[in-house]
Amino acid sequence: MPGYRALLSSSKGKVKAALRPLLQAVQPAQLPLSPALWDLEDDLTRGLTLEGTPLRELVTRFGSPLHVVRAARLRDNARRFRSIPSGATRGCEVFYSYKTNPIPGVLKTLHEQGIGAEVISPYELWLAKELGVPAELTIYNGPAKSDDSLRDAVERGIQAINCNHREELPRVARIARQLGVRARVTLRVNTSVGWSGQFGTPIQGGRALAAYREALTMPELSVVGLHAHRGGQIRNEPELLAFVSEVLAFAEQLEGIMPSPLELLNFGGSLGLSTSEHLDDRARRRNELFHVDVPTPAAAEALTIERYLELLLGAVDQHYRRLSKPRPRVFLEPGRAMTGNAQLLLTRVLSTKENAGTTCAILDAGINLAESVKSEYHQVFCVTRHREARSHLHTLVGPICSPGDTLYPALRLPPLAEGDCLAIMDAGAYFVPFSTSFSFPRPAIVMLDDGQATLLRRRETFEDLCSYDSPR
Amino acid sequence: MPGYRALLSSSKGKVKAALRPLLQAVQPAQLPLSPALWDLEDDLTRGLTLEGTPLRELVTRFGSPLHVVRAARLRDNARRFRSIPSGATRGCEVFYSYKTNPIPGVLKTLHEQGIGAEVISPYELWLAKELGVPAELTIYNGPAKSDDSLRDAVERGIQAINCNHREELPRVARIARQLGVRARVTLRVNTSVGWSGQFGTPIQGGRALAAYREALTMPELSVVGLHAHRGGQIRNEPELLAFVSEVLAFAEQLEGIMPSPLELLNFGGSLGLSTSEHLDDRARRRNELFHVDVPTPAAAEALTIERYLELLLGAVDQHYRRLSKPRPRVFLEPGRAMTGNAQLLLTRVLSTKENAGTTCAILDAGINLAESVKSEYHQVFCVTRHREARSHLHTLVGPICSPGDTLYPALRLPPLAEGDCLAIMDAGAYFVPFSTSFSFPRPAIVMLDDGQATLLRRRETFEDLCSYDSPR
């Protein structure tokens, strides 16, 4: 039996090895994205640099692995989201999705640009208050609001509590009644395409409208608008317009039962990044089995922030012009599109291991810090050998001693050696919140601003990892 | 286009709904495992209790969510792993896999029973030293050893450095040379079934033997044995015997090139738990799409610790008797089988949401604390309604505002309401190390010992989550 399994496993290996060149010929090597998309520059002697700072020097100074946040890109993204498209009379009010990258130094930078806080937990609500975000720039979302946090939100009179599901309405009403105030609420509704499950009430079947009718019977609730967050990544115009038109059609229905016009329409987030996109299982499997490159995103074709705003506000303006009604305030809750491309993760090669046909590069960052790389395209650059040809096939694995800790089954890079430094791009969405301290302390986070690097968060120490434990 | 997609999505929904009763009839409802397997008792008025302590009182006292570790079960598992099977002359030397559940209070309890430390990172090596584990009870594994940590390990003369791959050998030799000592090493080898990739050198094709030949040329290395960790879960006798016999066959080859007999054989870990097992994708998909129960593990048929030892030591003893040689020391590195069933995670229902045909129960613990539940069977009990029939279909989701935060797409439980408390069993392997602080602080960990609960690790506070950040 073991002999048979071994034989089978070995034959499978031979079949895969034989199929590799064929499949690689059918889908030739993918070109990497250009470092210029992130303003990275190539210096003959100092490797890749950002704002004149060699990335490898940052690792020498602050240790590896290392998150590098770029202030200029954060400010630029914030400014772009708050810009008014030509033809529009007003722009959007923008609330950053805290859960995407809840680093206080990042959040402060965005708030300084007039961006508000979209929070989904008692902790995030507390953090926004700590960071001095005013109540009118705070929105509370999510399926898991505690009574205490709702009490705080209602008492402070935050901009809106977006009730995740119908059952939240009486809770908010009860708390508002206890406090003797009215709470500003919206109800999250689901369009035909997008997340459902634990989120929102479907527009289809009249369920969302029924929930709104219920909300309107509660005198403690001030129903100020509607909330629709599609989820997934909106990457092209048809996807965006389909979503927006469904929301607008529902808003029109809703206006029919409202005692007064809707004050606001909240379109949530979900705008994708041009340089990173979801990898389907097939792409990942082909990469693993046959070493076929995962597809590089068509960055130039992706929806930009400007085009997203232009289309979204264009559709809303047109809709209300047609109805001859003033258009409500438009709220957005971007996450990935705001911070994703403003951060990179530097990691070093701890060791290499020669396997048949590939070199396994064991990095000091794996799924403990960059789990998204398993299901999303993230461009990887070799900071220390950027000028060399991407000639050699590598498996990039992390340090945590689990076969699941494989970031890239097969990636062409210059031949790596111990001590080489890699940059994993677009680390500003979901890398930090999903990070664990699995056997290795979490890294420092620095901000690069006008070429100056300052520490936003120090790295964890060994002592930190057991500092909440009872005395040893 | 959106109309078409909506129609398609809605038709798919109808097809799934129509297929559900058919598929559920083909595979009837699964019975849950008995609470008695974890010594849980059902109290008429106080719900489920453990050692006379009502679990819901623990949540009232220490907050929710809450990890509960059971000292008696830890001691019992340790004792069982160190027992000598009938017919054997000696037992095994046992090193607990720190990465599986690195809670100092848990580790101390195991060390008090004579269990050593199997560490895979500089942090874990440091922690074992902090906890007073002697050098001879420490083993250093994994692909990501730093030079500093290797220096410490060599200097202290730990029991064994298991070189993960051939390329580690010259590093260890260089460090030993610098320190003027010899390092006790083994080399990790791969059998035909089991993990490979970043781990080990294959026995097949003579590669492991070649690596050993290389090690034997390095005078700084004292090659004391071999290391083989299969990975995955060993759940039955044929799997175990196939693995052990391959290791023994290689050991025999190896003895042929060694200047002296092997001092030790390290068979790693991988023994599974009887009450939890890997769920294949199909089982998960059928649960999600058609609400078919995931299969309950056949707990009574799984390999016990006693039977595992009896078979493993029996095979080793027989092998060396046949060769008329003394048998080497036998090392084991259990993780899951040592601590998995000694811990449970208590979580409360924050809110419920009625969906078509199911109730979505929003819990205060999701993939942030219990990601393993997505790919492994974990028994769930309703602590507060254990006597009621499991009559109602629930989707169990966590709090983190992501559709990925779904622990069970469909699980039959008594009808849940806000405030109900659930126990997720077998939380003592990979729950704590894979936990994140995604929007919610991590919970407290208590140990129950002879009915007394004491705090091992306090819960994170809001302040903790940003305490390493630069002043706000």
Record the SSE blueprint.
2 copies of one chain form a homodimer.
Chain A: H1 2-26, E1 40-43, E2 47-50, E3 53-54, H2 55-62, E4 66-70, H3 71-82, E5 93-97, H4 104-112, E6 116-119, H5 122-130, E7 138-140, H6 147-156, E8 160-163, H7 168-179, E9 183-190, E10 201-202, H8 207-216, E11 221-227, H9 237-255, E12 264-266, H10 281-290, H11 305-323, E13 329-332, H12 336-339, E14 343-355, E15 358-363, H13 367-370, E16 380-382, E17 392-397, E18 406-413, E19 421-424, E20 444-449, E21 452-457
Parallel strand pairs in A: 4-20, 5-6, 5-13, 6-7, 7-8, 8-9, 9-10, 9-11, 11-12, 12-13, 15-17
Antiparallel strand pairs in A: 1-2, 2-3, 4-14, 14-15, 14-19, 16-19, 17-18, 20-21
What are its keywords?
homodimer; about 475 residues; alpha/beta; Lyase, Ornithine Decarboxylase, Chain A, domain 1; TIM Barrel; nine-stranded mixed beta sheet; eight-stranded parallel β-barrel; globular; disordered N terminus
Can you offer a commentary on this structure?
Chain A is α/β, with parallel strands linked by helices. Chain A folds into two domains: 170 residues, Lyase, Ornithine Decarboxylase, Chain A, domain 1; 257 residues, Alpha-Beta Barrel (TIM Barrel), CATH 3.20.20.10. Chain A is built from 13 helices and 21 strands. In chain A, strands 4, 14, 15, 16, 17, 18, 19, 20 and 21 form a nine-stranded mixed beta sheet that branches. Chain A has an eight-stranded parallel barrel with strand order 5-6-7-8-9-11-12-13, surrounded by five helices. A three-stranded antiparallel beta sheet of chain A has the order 1-2-3. In chain A, helix 6 packs across helix 7 and helix 9 runs parallel beside helix 11. Chain A is globular, with a radius of gyration of 25 Å. The relative contact order of chain A is 0.15.
